[in-house]
């Protein structure tokens, strides 16, 4: 048994897939992907830097935004090497342990993003329903505790998935369907019974994105009720405008996630590159779009980012 376990884990090499059927165009396809990665990394780094260096942004709402930017950076970095390696050098091979590590971090940052979006919904609810107690409810200590809880939750949920994959034996086919390691994808290559893995994977999905989305919707039901009880139309508009950026961030996280689930379940007849495109979009759209949404829709962030860029330009 120990020999077979050695073969199944340390010796195994998986093959990642670029764009099936479009291999001849990989160099050209890499151009938009490079642009998206550059946008995601620079945009989130800029927002993080602006929040850290500008004292006017040392408020709960922006601390949560810095957590969102951190998870988006982590998500982008987790897939950058394998995706561009395939497009530029046709470097498709990945060892079992490297694959498991990548899968763990991708899913950890995905769970963290979902948790941060829930924390941001709570932040908006407190700010709108009880503005006078906002600072006393969301103290710096409580925000640190929320941040630690988000990381701990993600780690505790994702560790069993990686441990259970290590126990499986793998068949002769080692070809994965994506440009990165994805839990259902790796699981499908096993020759052994994967019912426990499937059950744990489904439980992880329901207890993170499923639970978080329900609580985010509930937060917005309460927020809308509070906004409608405000007498002044001007105040109503102002209160709702503070939620616009967060609603955009929730939409760009959950829509690709739901699309990916639907394609995996119902898109058996779709061309293989459609699966790959949606899987890549699911990981790249939120990190690319979140900095843009917050820079365009949040005046304080826009001013801080422009201030940082201006001071850097004048230094040169």
Structure description:
By secondary structure, the chain is mainly α. It is 77% helix and 2% strand. Strands 1-2 form a two-stranded antiparallel ribbon. α2 (26-53) packs antiparallel against α3 (60-89) and α3 runs antiparallel to α11. The longest helix is centred in the middle third of the chain and has 34 residues, at 96-129.
Helix content range = over 70%
Outline, from the CA principal axes? globular
Average pLDDT, all residues: 90
The assigned structural class equals: mainly alpha
**How many helix segments?**
12
N-to-C SSE series? Answer: HEHHEHHHHHHHHH
Observed structural traits:
single chain, two-stranded antiparallel ribbon, 12 helices, 316 residues, mainly alpha, 77% helix, disordered N terminus
SSE blueprint:
Blueprint: H1 2-8, E1 13-15, H2 26-53, H3 60-89, E2 93-95, H4 96-129, H5 134-137, H6 140-166, H7 183-187, H8 195-228, H9 233-241, H10 244-266, H11 272-297, H12 299-315
Antiparallel strand pairs: 1-2
Task: Summarize, please.
This protein is mainly α and 316 residues long. It has twelve helices and two strands. The longest helix has 34 residues.
């Amino acid at each position: 048994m120990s020999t077979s376990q050695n073969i199944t884990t340390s010796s195994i090499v998986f093959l990642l897939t670029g764009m099936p059927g479009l291999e001849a165009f990989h160099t050209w396809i890499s151009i938009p992907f490079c642009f998206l990665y550059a946008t995601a990394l620079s945009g989130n780094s800029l927002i993080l830097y602006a929040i850290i260096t500008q004292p006017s942004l040392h408020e709960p709402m922006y601390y949560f935004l810095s957590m969102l930017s951190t998870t988006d950076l982590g998500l982008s970095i987790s897939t950058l090497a394998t995706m561009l390696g395939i497009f530029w050098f046709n470097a498709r091979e990945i060892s079992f342990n490297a694959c498991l590590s990548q899968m763990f971090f991708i899913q950890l940052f995905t769970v963290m993003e979902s948790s941060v979006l829930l924390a941001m919904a709570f932040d908006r609810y407190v700010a709108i329903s009880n503005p006078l107690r906002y600072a006393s409810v969301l103290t710096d200590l409580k925000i640190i505790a929320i941040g630690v809880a988000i990381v701990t939750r993600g780690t505790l949920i994702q560790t069993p998935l990686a441990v259970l994959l290590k126990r499986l034996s793998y068949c002769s086919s080692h070809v994965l369907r994506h440009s990165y390691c994805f839990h259902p994808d790796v699981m499908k290559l096993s020759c052994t019974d994967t019912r426990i893995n499937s059950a744990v994977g489904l439980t992880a999905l329901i207890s993170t994105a499923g639970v978080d989305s329900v609580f985010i919707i509930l937060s917005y039901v309460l927020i809308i009720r509070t906004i409608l009880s405000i007498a002044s139309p001007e105040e109503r508009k102002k209160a709702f405008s503070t939620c616009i950026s967060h609603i955009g961030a929730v939409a760009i996280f959950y829509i690709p996630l739901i699309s990916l689930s639907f394609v995996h379940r119902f898109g058996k007849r779709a061309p293989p590159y459609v699966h790959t495109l949606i899987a890549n979009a699911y990981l790249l759209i939120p990190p690319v779009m979140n900095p843009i949404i917050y820079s365009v829709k949040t005046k304080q962030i826009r001013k801080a980012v422009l201030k940082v860029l201006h001071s850097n330009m004048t230094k040169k």
